[in-house]
Amino acid sequence: MPRYVAPPDTEPMREMNTTPLIDVMLVLLVMFLIALPALTHKVPLNIPPPGPADGAPPPIHSLGISPTGSLSWDGRMLPASALRDRLDAMVADPAYPRLEIAAHAEAPYGRVDEILAEINRAGVTQVGFTGNSVFANAY
Q1: What are phi and psi of 26, to 5 degrees?
Q2: How confident is the model at residue 133 (pLDDT cuts 50, 70, 90)?
Q3: Distances 86 to 2, 90, 92, 115 between C-alpha atoms, Å
Q4: 57, 97 in Cβ contact below 8 A?
């Protein structure tokens, strides 16, 4: 049988054949995807304890922040040094009261942030914001 002889002007191929490497890479990729556990997204959720048996709504306290940064608790002026005491008393109340914050539109952001941090440190979990309707059409 005659043997094939390449023409004299041809050379061996110098490029590497990457097809097998791509095949191996795809197989490894599929194996890693199967081996990885499914990722779960957890949302921390604090469920409040059951309320009073009589079904009465919990008391609501209002914390106002004026444009100058001064505070009012349920409509009465409150010194900044007394805020922590009020928050601690609120957390200790077995009726599990809620706190509604009404910050004026021109209240300093830094002051509001300090107050929110103090509320968080006190352990208050039932917090809401009131008076936000003025910002509904702002943007």
Answers
A1: -65, -40
A2: confident
A3: 104, 6, 10, 13
A4: no
* pLDDT class of 18 with cuts at 50, 70, 90: confident
- pTM for the predicted model, two decimal places: 0.59
- With a CB cutoff of 8 Å and minimum separation 6, the contacts of 57 are 51
What are the pLDDT digits (tens) for 48-80?
A: 666 666 677 888 999 999 999 899 999 999 998
Sequence ranges of the domains in the chain: 60-135
Q: Which fold has domain 60-135?
A: Nucleotidyltransferase; domain 5 (3.30.420)
Q: CB neighbours of 64 closer than 8 A, spacing ≥ 6?
A: 71, 72, 73, 75, 101, 102, 103, 104
